[in-house]
Amino acid sequence: MKISIIQTEVSYKNKRENISRVSSLLSAAKEIGDLVLLPELFSTGYIFNEASEIHELSEKFAGSQTIESLRSLAKKFNTVIVAGIAEEDNGQYFNTIAVIDKNGLIDRYRKISQTNIDRQYFSRGNQLTTFKYQGVTFGVAICFDLWFPEIVREYSRLGVDILLHPSNFGGEQSLQISRARAIENSMYVVTCNRVGSDITKDLTGIYRGCSQICSPDGNYLIRLGDAHTLATVELDIDVSSPKQVIAVDLNHERDSILSQLKTNITKHN
């Protein structure tokens, strides 16, 4: 399974330009993966002065021009594209990841773990998303989702081989958390972060890039810098061997640890 990360510099509120930048990187690439991952909200930016600004940019996925453009690129380059797009659905707005192949929209994931910024603009998602492609099981988590181990643990229980992690972050913590989740859950974690900045009257977001792929044993298969770029990596996955999911009784583990601590304290006294 080959995966391409597009670490794009987002042109603020300019969907046409952002799609053009993705198209240019794909056209110039020597190799394109079986799946192409784009950042969270790649077509619009993430921080706005007013919620109305991102709401005006949000799209109903039936008839979405952004999805149609990505469908055309998926067909042209014989790949599946996974991309962050602001979605409108029945008067609600979501920070959404769309999964798109040559025929159009396959599936979607709506961000569950909201930052203070998300809560100003978007409704909260309420379900996980998995899909199979070439025998590999994928899950999707957006940026801050990875800070909550329960989400990734549930994906592990569902047999996910590769967790796709589109992001907009500026700090180092998310990079370390991505690696921790890969090790904890014995899965690949593919983090695609953007570069550039969003500048509003009250807040400036500066995005570090540093997209990376962590293997289940915590090794880095690639770590990018802060450039607008496309990189392709091959992941070695044995789909003939089902993923082993380990169920842990957390209450039993807690009680066992507390019991041991009490025993040690008694001995010490």
Automatic annotation (TrEMBL):
Keywords: Hydrolase. Coiled coil: none annotated. It comes from the Bacteria. Residues 1-237 form the CN hydrolase domain. The keyword Hydrolase applies. Gene3D superfamilies: Carbon-nitrogen hydrolase (3.60.110.10). InterPro entries: Aliph_Amidase/BUP, C-N_Hydrolase, C-N_Hydrolase_sf. GO terms for molecular function: hydrolase activity, acting on carbon-nitrogen (but not peptide) bonds, in linear amides. Transmembrane segments: none annotated. PANTHER family: BETA-UREIDOPROPIONASE (PTHR43674:SF2), NITRILASE C965.09-RELATED (PTHR43674). This is Carbon-nitrogen hydrolase. It comes from Photobacterium proteolyticum. The lineage of its organism: Bacteria, Pseudomonadati, Pseudomonadota, Gammaproteobacteria, Vibrionales.
